[in-house]
Each structure stands twice: as structure tokens, then as C-alpha cells.
């Protein structure tokens, strides 16, 4: 299967770090994949607060943000529990919730499927397909940690939004790219978003805007 045949679900929730999910979607589109995009209502609020998105017309906001690549995005309203990705019979290669709020984390850990984000993630787990979540909160209490442990036992990959500094990030972009690159590594998608340990310094490619 080539990248062009691959479909991924990208979920953006109301945790801080909306920029991560947007950058991930950009990278998947750049790799030629189809992106099924889900944004919770709180996720839209954070897109407005953190990235200054005008969010009253959501489809238009997506087209503005992704330009001509928006044609490879399938945007699903969060309450559309009849969407393709709500069914295990619709094949996708994986789902990434980035960033993942503690609210959505709890819904996933309890299988409550109370919106399309929860349902699509539940489908990934029941079908044994890759599900990656990028939780963001600090500090975390025991319920947050227990929820993550439950999901880890289900095979969900937990990639906390924790920056590293050993590759000498200089900009916000470097920090965002590192985390997005870690997710792409799990999906086995080639990238040059950060300098790997053991590679010579100064080779970290900048994300192509
Ligand atoms: C600007 C902003 C930042 C937030 N950051 C976080 C966060 O980092 N982690 C988190 O769990 N919730 C955060 N929240 C709260 C969630 O948005 C809230 O709990 C919401 O109900 C989550 O809903 P969702 O899981 O449907 O997106 C934030 C809210 C706002 C407005």
C-alpha cells in the first residue's frame, strides 16, 4: 500500500497544543495520505484561543488552514455518529488523538463512545488497529494515570506531550516537530522533522510550511 492509499483519523480535542494536531495533519497530507479530521467543540475553542482561528464556519476554517491539500481532508462533525469512521467495516490505518484532553482520555478508558471521537477510537481498539493518543495535562492525578494505564493495556500507544531537549530545539516549531515526528515514527511514516540521536548536529530539517 502506498501512502496515497492510506487513511488516518486525526482527532483534536480541547487540551492545550492544538498546533500539534494541525502539524500532524499537515505532515500526513504531505505524505499523500487521506486525513479524516475530528475536532471536539472544546478543540475548536482551543484552536481559536491558541492559533487565532476563526471558527464560526468550521469547514471554511479547515480550507483556509490547509489550502489546496484540504481536498484530501474528510471533516466529520463530532456528533455525526453515522460517519464512515464510526464503523469497523470502514478501513483506516490508524487514529491519532493529538492533543488528547483528560476528558476524552476518560471517555476512551471507559468505552463510553459518547461522540464520534470516542466511537472512532473505540472502533480502533475493538478492531485491533493502531491508536495513538497524545495526552496533555499537568500535573496529573491518579485517575488520569489509571486511565492511561487502562488504555496502554489495550495496546493504545501513549505519547505524552513532553518535549525533549537533547536535540537542541531553537524554536517552537522544533518542539512541535519533535512530537509530531515521534508519532510518525510509530506509524512508520518517513520524515525529517528532527535530528535523531547519533546524527550530526545542524541537520534537523525545518518543516515545509
Ligand atoms: C485554552 C484551554 C486549554 C485547555 N487545556 C487543557 C489541557 O491541556 N488538558 C486538558 O485535559 N484539558 C484542557 N482544557 C479543558 C478541556 O478543554 C475541557 O475539559 C473539555 O471539556 C475537554 O473536552 P473534549 O475532551 O471533548 O475536547 C483546556 C481548555 C481551554 C479552553
From TrEMBL:
<protein>
    <recommendedName>
        <fullName>Flavin prenyltransferase UbiX</fullName>
        <ecNumber>2.5.1.129</ecNumber>
    </recommendedName>
</protein>
<dbReference type="InterPro" id="IPR003382">
    <property type="entry name" value="Flavoprotein"/>
</dbReference>
<dbReference type="InterPro" id="IPR004507">
    <property type="entry name" value="UbiX-like"/>
</dbReference>
<comment type="similarity">
    <text>Belongs to the UbiX/PAD1 family.</text>
</comment>
<keyword id="KW-0808">Transferase</keyword>
<keyword id="KW-0637">Prenyltransferase</keyword>
<keyword id="KW-0285">Flavoprotein</keyword>
<comment type="function">
    <text>Flavin prenyltransferase that catalyzes the synthesis of the prenylated FMN cofactor (prenyl-FMN) for 4-hydroxy-3-polyprenylbenzoic acid decarboxylase UbiD. The prenyltransferase is metal-independent and links a dimethylallyl moiety from dimethylallyl monophosphate (DMAP) to the flavin N5 and C6 atoms of FMN.</text>
</comment>
<keyword id="KW-0456">Lyase</keyword>
<feature type="binding site">
    <location>
        <position position="136"/>
    </location>
    <ligand>
        <name>FMN</name>
    </ligand>
</feature>
<dbReference type="GO" id="GO:0106141">
    <property type="term" value="F:flavin prenyltransferase activity"/>
</dbReference>
<feature type="binding site">
    <location>
        <position position="182"/>
    </location>
    <ligand>
        <name>dimethylallyl phosphate</name>
    </ligand>
</feature>
<feature type="binding site">
    <location>
        <position position="166"/>
    </location>
    <ligand>
        <name>dimethylallyl phosphate</name>
    </ligand>
</feature>
<feature type="binding site">
    <location>
        <begin position="14"/>
        <end position="16"/>
    </location>
    <ligand>
        <name>FMN</name>
    </ligand>
</feature>
<dbReference type="Pfam" id="PF02441">
    <property type="entry name" value="Flavoprotein"/>
</dbReference>
<keyword id="KW-0288">FMN</keyword>
<dbReference type="InterPro" id="IPR036551">
    <property type="entry name" value="Flavin_trans-like"/>
</dbReference>
<feature type="binding site">
    <location>
        <position position="40"/>
    </location>
    <ligand>
        <name>FMN</name>
    </ligand>
</feature>
<feature type="binding site">
    <location>
        <begin position="101"/>
        <end position="104"/>
    </location>
    <ligand>
        <name>FMN</name>
    </ligand>
</feature>
<dbReference type="GO" id="GO:0016831">
    <property type="term" value="F:carboxy-lyase activity"/>
</dbReference>
<feature type="domain" description="Flavoprotein">
    <location>
        <begin position="6"/>
        <end position="186"/>
    </location>
</feature>
